[in-house]
Amino acid sequence: MKNTENFDDIIFENRNKAYGAYYLRKNYSNYLTRAMVIGSSCIILLFGGAFTYNKYIVPKLAQNNSNDGTWVILPPPTEPPIEIPEVTPPPPPERVIEQQASIKFLPPIPVDNNDVIIETPPPDPKDIEGKIISSISTEGLETDLLIPPPVAPEITKKIDLDEPDEGKVFVAVEQQPQFPDGDKALYKFLSENIHYPQAAARVNVSGKVYIKFVVEKDGSIGNVEVTKGIGFGCDEEAVRVIKLMPKWTPGKQNGKAVRVYYNMPVVYRLE
I need a surface site. Which of 132, 168, 241, 246 has the fewest CB within 10 A? Predict the structure, then answer.
């Protein structure tokens, strides 16, 4: 006797075959084949319909919609351009020149041949009010307020440069003070005279100490103060060296020597 049992029969032996799982597994291959056939048919119909439409229907529609069998492509409708009317600017208003009214009144004119003098009778005093006397009579504004032409003010005091205040300290002047022989000599002086404080060297302190001082009229240095320091003896050493500097070329204002503030950074850098 031929054994017809398959793998599903062996698995579902002694189990409830009417539950549904046995039936689905037994007919799985049939369902799969049927699904593949239906899916392939749908794909073939889709591509076949598109091919048929482009091959036969589109040319036929084009032939029916044209006069000579060619496809007519109409351009999209365009809106007519909007005409902007030209606006003519209004003419500028006529300038009205206001003029004070005048009345004619000429002095007597002598005649050479005869000693007869032609006189023009003077105008009535009522007519002169609000008008000026002229060789002709004109219409205009009648007013007693006559605006005289502008007159330059009279200079009654001599203008000269004031003497600079003896005690004033300038921040900026026409000619700045300068170290003898220029800035290179200044940097050389600082590098040769500044000693790095031991406290700053031990903790590896470096930076800039900003010093402010006054260059006096004779070039000497005064009022030395620290505006920003770094401590560890660097500030005091910078002040000491600044006070040791020789006399500077003083600053000048209006050609005269004046007292001038000067700011200088002293740089500390460990090699």
Answer: 168
